[in-house]
Amino acid sequence: MSTLTSGEEAVRITDLGVTFATDGGDVRAVDGVSLSVKAGEVLAIVGESGSGKTVTAKTILGLLPETATTSGAVVIGDQNVVALSGSRLRELRGQDVAMVFQEPSTALNPVFTVGWQIAQGLRAHGRYSRAEARKKAIEVLEKVGIPDASHRVDYYPHQFSGGQKQRIVIAMALVLDPGLIVADEPTTALDVTVQAEILDLMRDLRDEFNTAIVLITHNMGVVADLADRVAVMYNGKVVEEADAVTLFGDPKHEYTKKLLAAVPHIGTGRASTRERAMDRALLDTKQLVVARDLEIVYPGRLGRPGFRAVNKVSFEIGEREVLGLVGESGSGKTTIGRAIAGLTRVTGGSLKVLGKEMLGIREREFRPVRSDIGFVFQDPATSFNPLLTIAECVAEPLLVHGRADSVQGARAQVDELLEAVQLPRSFGDRYPHELSGGQRQRASLARAIALKPRLLIADEPTSALDVSVQAKVLELFAELQREFGFASLFISHDLAVVDLLADRIGVLYHGELVEEGLGEQVLGAPQHPYTKRLLASLPVPDPAAQAQRRAELHRLRREGA
Amino acid sequence: MSVETTSVASPSRPSLWKRLPVIHQLRQSVGLQRGMLVAGLILTGIFVLAAIFAPLIAPFGYGQLRDENGTFGAQQPPSAEHLLGTTVGGYDVLSRVIWGSQTAMLVILIAVVLSIFAGVFLGLFSGYLGGWVDRVLVVVCDAIYAFPSLLLAIVMSIVISGGQSSLFGGILAAAISITVVFIPQYFRVIRAETVRIKAEAFVESAKVLGSSSFRIMFRHVLRNATRTLPLIFTLNASEAILTLAGLGFLGFGIEPTSAAEWGYDLNKSISDVTSGIWWTSVFPGLAIVMVVLGVTLIGESMNDLADPRLRTRRRADGAPAALATSTVVPGGSLDSVADLDTASVFKSGEALS
Q1: Domain residue ranges of chain A, discontinuous segments joined by +
Q2: Is residue B331 part of a domain?
Q3: Who among A22, A254, A396 is closest to B337 (CB)?
Q4: A322, B18, B228, B296: which could join A488 in a potential S-S bond, CB 3.0 to 4.6 Å?
Q5: Which residues in chain B are contacts of A19 at CB distance < 8 A?
Q6: In this predicted model, what pLDDT tens digit does every residue of B16-26 receive, in sequence order?
């Protein structure tokens, strides 16, 4: 309840243990976790996937599935949530503790207006007339910064942008003035510029309403931006707990150090790219991909104009060169990658890939070139046929292009490839689901380089991975690039990742290439206002530096407005 | 218990027979779902055994009216000689019920084998290639859906056997009419799965590699699209039995001298019901109900078990479970933190290239 005064404990977790019954036997997801959060404080729980951070958060609201068995205590006010059930638990939810979910587009029901959905929470906890509930909904929407709230309260979720939807989800959590908000990866699904705004909003909540916030995240930049205290979880245990400044400045536990070291910083890639540029200058460079005024339009529904995903984009990729494409969702970066691989039709301009004009090309003409193009997909979990072993998957390109006649015949080559991506040979006999995300992405790289392609397209290859795993995969990528010498189009939404690998960087905004140049130029001295904003929005894992960047971003926004 | 040993033995696959469709589900199930599955399996098992060993189990032939002691006599109540009595035509009810399972099983086998191949391949091509072929096939299937299946079956039985009723004429009539109705079902399911799988990243990755459409369809799509087939198979099997019984009941069945058929026996026992002769209708009727129930129970419980959200599991017993390495921790276990960079990947200690 908002009656909490500053410094009062909003929740105390003591020796929490959660065990899940699964097909493979019992799994202990959380083991002896003790934490507490005071009013007006943001506690960040960080950790990699599977570390138990989300399970811990869900226990606070009693949201665990039936297969879970809980021990220990979660005390809110004077009640132990673990022991509560049914109606008491329902009273507690919303009133004393509320939740903000990861994906705002699925957390809202598409067939009801947002006003109705906010009022629903009110009506569950007391008697409100329709008009009162509506008034309250408008009030809370204004509080979270939805412009023209009295009018837009009757809008449906699809009429709002992603960031606004997350604001509405936060409004739903706020409407009953809970003393504690549990936010499970609240900004992971959002673009960086929007993420910065949501983080500002949550900071305001803490400062103005004295709300306690439990922030679950894997993004160290977000932690540095918002958290007062940080708990690092690993393998179901809290391995380190400290206030944010101490944790980032002087991490104690070995794992925390590794985790912080794995976060990519802007500026770390410069030395290596400069070296590569020198190497390349010695060779005479041939352009592998040339785009001139490239246009890609997705056909619209009957009678509606199509959607212009890529608009008049020109760029080149030379031999042995890595071009990084950065942009937010919907900027057309993936579309360009798919067009080069012949997965999406080019509708205008010109795109030459390895000498073939892609505008109006037929699959039969393009097929011979395909052996020179590798593709690494975003989600390693879905890019493997689940019924084939890793060896069969990696051998597939060799079989298709007649370099081997059977999986057994290709096995020697497959073993070499697996070693090249630092996977043990024995992994070839495993099925994709038996590998972790990082291992799968390595296997995916092995498949992509199987034919020794001259061009490799990597579409967000690390965005589905944890930071420490991401660092390893990026390192491997750079190593393979040196060894095999392929040119590459590296697509990512993360500037820091692109900076690590790319020689040149292109920034896409609404289908247009707003800035393109050497990595140093684009990141060191950005020209376009959008690039500047993008750079300033990226949170860095250092609370002091992040505070400065935040001020800078606010200045940029004021200038822009 | 063997469950433990399989979970400990790290990546080695469980033996082939444990992965077979029904066996795998049986080992996986607990509680009510297991009860349903076991009940279904027992009922269906009795049915299959009865069908296979009918010549050994049945005391008399399906068309037998007399033995060395003379004719059986019509509508005899259950006795030591005729355990379930005799019918109005003077046949032994027990023998007819047992022989009837053979006919039913033949119909199921023929109907499902005919429809499964046609339906699956049409669905695969239609879903993957799309275009006008797809549209035409979908319209045809919708049209067949709109057609009453029993009417179709009647037409078929007239076309095939010309109104005469031999063993294979009757069985084929029933099987083919069922096939025509079932092909759209398999078609629909496989097509929907294919369309879904077509958009998956692994199919795109096969396309990027330059695989031919044929290779993608059969190597990557087909095997992933057949997950739901066992379920439709069981549901269709029970529907096939009902259609056969319905045909027999309407008088389009198989003559008692050619084969035993439950629907036919039911039809002949209508008049008995009002005169208090219960045994001629109850036992063939019970046979139909039990077989359909058994097959449906298998289908339903397999459906629940295939869905991780519906599958019930043993409750965690509260005993501190080992903080197993099976916990999904990409960075490796806690003690390997110190060498996080290599330990997680090189568990088996293989050398770097």
Answers
A1: 9-96+178-262, 109-177, 270-284+321-328+366-555
A2: no
A3: A254
A4: A322
A5: 316, 318, 320-321
A6: 666 676 777 77
Mutate which of A15, A19, A33 to test chain B, going by most B C-beta atoms within 10 A?
A19
Task: Classify A226 as helix, strand or coil.
Answer: helix
pTM, entire model: 0.74
CB-CB neighbors (< 8 A) of A389 in chain B: none
Cβ-count burial A161-187 (b if 16+ within 10 Å, e if not): ebbbbbbbbbbbbbbbebbbbbbbbbb
Residue pair A110/A121 in contact (Cβ under 8 Å)? The answer is no
Rounded Cα–Cα distance for residues A89 and A82 (Å): 9
Burial class (CB in 10 A: 0-12, 13-18, 19+), A405: exposed
B184 to chain A, closest Cα gap in Å: 26
> Which CA distances in Å does B82 have to B18, B56, B93, B102, B272?
43, 16, 8, 20, 17
- Predicted confidence at residue B1, as pLDDT, reads 35
Tell me: pLDDT of B305 over 90.
Answer: no
Cβ atoms of A323 and A299 closer than 8 Å: no
Which CATH superfamily, name and number, covers A270-284+321-328+366-555?
Answer: P-loop containing nucleotide triphosphate hydrolases (3.40.50.300)
Q: What is the CATH number of the domain that holds B223?
A: 1.10.3720.10
Note the pLDDT of residue A138. 92
Predicted local confidence at residue B14, as pLDDT? 58
Which of B115, B108, B94, B102 has its CA nearest to residue B167?
B102
Token code pair at residue A421: 């991506």
Cα distance from N-terminal residue to C-terminal residue, chain A: 37
Q: What is the mean pLDDT of residues A220-236?
A: 89
Asked if A19 reaches chain B (Cβ–Cβ under 8 Å), the answer is yes
Q: Which residues pair with B104 in a beta bridge?
A: none
Residue of A329, A332, A331 whose CA lies nearest to A346: A332
Largest CA distance in chain B: 92
Contact B326 A71 (CB under 8 A): no
Nearest to B247 by CA among B163, B312, B190: B163
Q: CB A420 to CB B353 under 8 A?
A: yes
Report which of B247, B107, B98, B223 is spatially closest to residue B165, judged by C-alpha positions: B247
What sign results for the dihedral spanned by CA atoms A513, A516, A521, A522? positive
A-B C-beta contacts closer than 8 Å: 172
* 3 state SS of B31: helix
What is the spatial distance between Cα A435 and Cα A445, in angstroms, rounded to a whole number? Answer: 14
User: And the tokens for B157?
Assistant: 């039985």
The Cβ of residue A439 has, within 10 Å, a number of other Cβ atoms equal to 25
Q: Which two tokens stand for residue B281?
A: 């209708």
| pLDDT band for position A456 (cuts 50, 70, 90) | very high
Q: Establish whether domains A9-96+178-262 and A270-284+321-328+366-555 are of one fold.
A: yes
Cβ pair A341:B211 closer than 8 A: no
Q: Which domain holds residue B174?
A: 21-306
pLDDT (tens digit per residue) in A46-84: 988 778 888 888 888 888 887 888 888 888 888 888 888
Contacts of A466 in chain B (CB under 8 A): 330-331
Q: Which of A22, A387, A437 sits opposite B224 (nearest CB)?
A: A387
What pLDDT is stored for residue B45 in this prediction?
Answer: 92
User: Per the structure block, which two tokens stand in for B44?
Assistant: 């269906």
Question: Which homologous superfamily does the CATH classification assign to the domain defined by A9-96+178-262?
Answer: P-loop containing nucleotide triphosphate hydrolases (3.40.50.300)
Give the span between the Cα atoms of B98 and B294, in whole angstroms: 16
Q: How far is residue A326's CA from residue A351's CA, in Å, rounded to a whole number?
A: 19
Tell me which residue of A344, A348, A345, A356 sits closest to A311, measured CA to CA.
Answer: A348
For chain B, the domain total comes to 1
Given a cut of 80, is residue A223 above it in pLDDT?
A: yes
Say if CB A369 and CB A356 are below 8 A apart. Answer: yes
CA–CA distance, A108 with A114 (Å, rounded to integer):
8
